[in-house]
Amino acid sequence: MKLCSSTKMYSYSVCVARCDSHIAAMRARYDSNGGQLRLCAESKKMLNLKEPSQWRLDNLIDVQPHVITPLLKYWSYISLALGVCSLL
Length: 88
What we know:
This protein has helices at about 5-30, 40-45, 55-80. It is mostly helical. It has one domain.
């Protein structure tokens, strides 16, 4: 079954709207003043997220490895320290 081009465009528009909504929610959570989860100025500078216009999908995709790697290292350290990981 083939989708007509208008259906594809509608699906794309819905996806873009969801992405924009999710990015706005992330920015509200991590970029709001006085928030508990607020990124410090140094972190925002390092991740190139200083300005609201920089919170775009393409930029966040580029930033993702810089956020995930320290988290993985932290949780692997914690799991080893607690003896949770039995693979070693």
